[in-house]
Design brief:
Layout: E1 2-7, H1 27-36, E2 42-48, E3 69-72, E4 75-78, E5 104-108, H2 131-137, E6 142-148, H3 150-164, E7 169-178, H4 182-194, E8 198-200, H5 202-206
Parallel strand pairs: 1-2, 1-6, 2-5, 6-7, 7-8
Antiparallel strand pairs: 3-4
Helix pairs in contact: 3-4
This protein binds pyrazine-2-carboxylic acid and zinc ion.
Zinc ion is lined by residues 48, 50, 56, 80, 83-84, 109.
Length: 207
């Protein structure tokens, strides 16, 4: 069983959104090619899904500005602009994404006291989302993942996939992904490779 895991391809992370990733919208056509390829038995998409006033938002902390470091529940936390608030336009999938083909949507980031970059568990690793169990139950043996943002949610999802599903082959599709910070993207790709994630492009995924 082969799964495609689409990470956070939401308005909020595309140009015009509240936490825009440079060229974030350019992943959509590549993601659609992968979705429509017939190569995958299962299409899963994650959705950053924060309550208003989430603790990762700079606006929730007096005197904090977006992209400064702050703390959340006693741990260092990047202060983000308000983004992907539940049921807002910002939290919707990009309108061009072929959402009809998605078999399962994993929402994350609902707990106001902890951020959740990974689609598998919160950043403090205390609470699981249920995605690992879902994929295990369907006997998934291969995961290709891509989306937004490479240096945050994609990376942490890939590392958790390797750790939590040790028998599964995990591949990161580079040209179907974009990141927030170019230096962070290079470090993220290195980190994924070091932890056993194969780095591929969509041509290889579609071959
Ligand atoms: C993300 C920062 C905050 C992401 C989500 O999807 O990469 N980044 N929330
Ligand atoms: Zn978020």
């Amino acid at each position: 069983m082969k799964a495609l895991l689409l990470i956070d391809i939401q308005n909020g992370f595309c140009p015009g959104g509240n936490l825009p990733v440079p060229e974030g919208d350019q992943v959509v056509s590549v993601a659609n090619q992968l979705i429509d390829s017939g190569k995958y038995d299962l299409i899963v998409a994650s959705q950053d899904w924060h309550p208003a006033g989430h603790g990762s938002f700079a606006s929730s902390h007096a005197g904090k500005k977006p992209f400064e470091m702050g703390t959340l529940s006693g741990k260092p936390q990047m202060m983000w602009p308000d983004h992907c608030v539940q049921n807002s336009k910002d939290a919707e999938f990009h309108p061009g994404l072929h959402v009809d083909a998605i078999d399962f949507i994993q929402q994350k980031g609902q707990n106001p006291a902890v951020d959740s970059y990974s689609a598998f568990r919160d950043n403090d690793q205390a609470a699981l989302t249920g995605l690992a169990a879902y994929l295990r139950n369907r006997d998934v043996t291969e995961i290709d993942l891509c989306g937004l943002a490479t240096d945050y949610c994609v990376k942490f999802s890939a590392l958790d996939a390797v750790e939590m599903l040790p028998d599964v082959t995990v591949r990161f599709i580079e040209d179907a992904s974009r990141g927030i910070d170019p230096v962070g993207v290079l470090a993220a790709i290195d980190d994924m490779r070091t932890h056993g994630v194969a780095i591929i492009d969509s041509k290889e995924a579609l071959a």
